[in-house]
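Reopening this one. Same input as before:
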Amino acid sequence: MKIEIWSDVACPWCYIGKRRFEAALAEFPHRDSVEVKWRSYQLDPGLPDHYDGTELDYLSTRKGLSREQVSGMFEHVSAQAKGEGLDYHFDTIVVANSFKAHRLIHLAAAYGKQDAAKERLLSDHFEHGKDIGSREYLTALGRDLGIGAAEVAELFTTEKYSDDVRADFEEARALGISGVPFFVIDRKFGLSGAQPAETFTAALNQAWQETHPLVLVDTSDGDSCGPNGCAV
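Same output, byte for byte:
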């Protein structure tokens, strides 16, 4: 079973959704038969490489909300994150365009480290105030993932993996995805948002049953028990 997850590194609900999905997958009896693939999505493709302001400045300006409303949103999301063992610090977030980070995730996939790259980027962005758009940070992250500095440098000197990221964007539009996180199971089931773990569990079970239906291989009258008793 293949699960594709459209997600943005700059989306706080995407990290919360990742944790809830992982909790469901950990309890799924067929988890070893599940392939998870991260797909790229950008909430604000027009964001400059580096925004000269805080997350509060950025969101209040972009959404046209008061600073008090945005602060309230931060409190709510932080509380939800804490419930999943995450420690958000919106006051230290470095606002940056996530396009190069998405390209690094595609590069990491070639090393079998896609999920590890996604996890680090989300944690470093929301919990540790790292600049996900900086060359220094992405090079250090690549090194931690076992990726050479020369390959990471290509993200800044060439367009390598740019087409792959844009292809994810186009596929999201084709599927009608307008928000993230968005989970697609075997291209048959779609779940929008950071659903509770129980919802992911139900979706996993339903998808598995549809793709692996029970087949009765022997209809002969073998010994059995029924409402009227047992065969003798």
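So the earlier flakiness isn't reproducible anymore. For the record, The first strand starts at residue 2 and ends at 7.
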